[in-house]
Amino acid sequence: MRCGTGVVQVGDYESEVNQKCGQPVQYDFVVIRPWGAVKKSIYSMGRGKFFKVLIFDDDRLVNISNGSRE
User: Fold this and answer.
1) N or C: the chain end with fewer CB closer than 10 Å?
2) CA distance 46 to 29
3) What per-residue confidence (pLDDT) applies to 29?
């Protein structure tokens, strides 16, 4: 996934993604465990484009998919 001049890929840390893409427009905790959380973060890619839905497991990006169109 491209954010400005940066590229985000599975395996990146959440802090790296936020540095490249900014803060998500929305996020939810999907599962909270004693050793970490699974979080769903939604990023805006701009007007007319699909939102990107990123899933983080214990602060590591594990999945990138398209959401609805903005």
Assistant:
1) C
2) 24
3) 82
